[in-house]
Amino acid sequence: MIWEELDAHLDRVPGTVSAYVGRPGARPTWTRRADATHYAASTMKLAVLVALFRAAEAGRLDLDAPVPVRNSFDSALSGAPRFVNDRDYDNDEAVWDRVGGEASLRWLAERMIVRSSNLATNICIGQVGLPAVAQAWALAGARHSVTGRGIEDFAARDSGIDNLVTAADLAALLGELALGATRPGPLASPAGCAAMLDVLVAQEHREDLAAGLPDGTRIAHKNGWVRGVRHGAGVVFPDDAPPYTIVVCTTTDLADGGADGEVEDDACRLIAHVSERVWATRHDLAG
To answer: Does pTM top 0.90 for this prediction?
Structure first.
């Protein structure tokens, strides 16, 4: 069986590899250490995206209103000084080019996902607030994932405030988005969920899950990386089968691509291999 083969293959990988595969709203077809916590890296941006759209639908934010683009943020640690982002550690010059000016939250949310901009992410968190991000996780049914701070909030990190995810929680959030685009759900309206999926489909970092799929396959996904960590989380929409959720989280020395998400490393190739094998079973996943 493919699942036993994948488990045997992943048993030989150094570090911790977690996985979740299944149809949205159904019991998973395959899991592997799905409740193990990993440093979130940029996968935490999924919950920020949901929080923004929820706030907009509740009338608390206008996604099309301009907000200041400033590189200065409140720490999640009470009493700590404000912190800034490092331009060299980011992935999107387009946001940095607007520092000192303004941009819409909708545009910043898109850059947060499609280019994984850290600066855009922290601006979005500053507008919506960390409690709203926590609520997004809770409404998705997440049990262990937490977004406790902004990116590069080192004072908070050093005090133990961190960003954590599990494969099961990422799958729960993405599954609710996929289902929520077809009927009312806990995260947002069907139109809101469909709009978020469109943003995720436009993802430009395609070195892991998407690399294991045939060209042109629709996948709504977000990945995350720092040295020693590489995650891929998405919903795949085959033309010839129902959609399925796939999440692979790795905390491993194979993830040596560092801060540059466009550097393909062995962790990217590992996730792509899992994605390719799951694609081959797309007709047979439990529904």
So the answer is: yes
